[in-house]
Write a structure and sequence with these properties.
The protein is of the alpha/beta class and 252 residues long. 49% of the residues lie in helices and 14% in strands. It is globular.
Length: 252
């Protein structure tokens, strides 16, 4: 493994993880610390502003973004267990502050330090084997922002392929949206439901007993659909999978 003693990361945990799936944040911190990274959690962090930004409330989104830029101003690296929120910090803040010299420059500085969780492990730490173990037949869903905004494609698979006991089945139409899309699923519920059903059918077609992704929003949406239809397919964030150890898996 790479030398990580001098690497310090601030965890930006995201609203969904903080409020609904705190175990994902715990797993992310455990994995990072196990790899020798010094991790802190800025206590004044709040929403990154993406729901407001996507809904056209630019002024309110800027208020949250300015707070986030202040909160993370001293971070060496910012690690985000979500492609969606990482894309907001890394890509959309630049658009949000375009034309405002002071804040645009701060957004640009932050962008160079923001990494999605799996991307950080592979690109910064140069690690693909975290010595995880999870006997399971699984499939992996690629979330939209992770693919299209961050262009993180191979990093999650490189990590999952080194998990002892994990049999990874390719997911048909893996790059197709699951239909959540934040406020999209609220604005266009019938379209969202149709897209979700296509994703569920593809997941079931793999014969997997676990669905893995890098975004809990996708897993919440797909997992909810699977549960309502009575399909016994578990969901796990990649951080939970990588936190699983031989003799005592941590994910649930």
């Amino acid at each position: 493994m790479s030398q990580t003693a001098d690497i310090h990361a601030s965890l930006f945990v995201t609203c969904i993880v903080d409020q609904l799936y705190p175990q994902v944040g715990v797993s992310a911190v455990r994995v990072l610390r196990r790899l020798g990274v010094e991790v802190d959690f800025p206590l004044d962090q709040t929403c990154c502003g993406q729901p407001l930004y996507n809904s056209g409330f630019t002024r309110q989104a800027r208020q949250l973004a300015e707070r986030t830029l202040e909160s993370l101003s001293l971070a060496q690296y910012v690690v985000v267990p979500s492609g969606s929120c990482a894309a907001m910090l890394k890509v959309f803040y630049r658009d949000l502050f375009a034309g405002d010299a002071q804040w645009e420059e701060r957004a640009e500085r932050l962008a160079g330090r923001v990494y999605e969780f799996s991307e950080f492990l592979v690109k910064v730490l140069d690690i693909t084997d975290v010595e995880a173990s999870l006997p399971s037949r699984a499939t992996y869903h690629s979330s939209c922002h992770l693919l299209r905004e961050l262009e993180v494609r191979e990093e999650p698979l490189a990590l999952l392929n080194r998990v002892d006991g994990l049999e990874l089945e390719p997911l048909p139409q893996a790059a197709t949206c699951c239909g959540f899309g934040g406020t999209f699923s609220v604005k266009y519920p019938h379209i969202s439901e149709g897209m979700l059903q296509d994703k569920i059918d593809n997941v079931l077609g793999t014969g997997a007993d676990t669905l893995i992704a890098c975004d809990m929003s996708c897993l919440m949406h797909i997992g909810g659909g699977l549960s309502r239809q009575g399909h016994p397919v578990a969901t796990a964030h990649i951080a939970e999978v990588l936190d699983s150890r031989r003799g005592g898996a941590s994910h649930g």
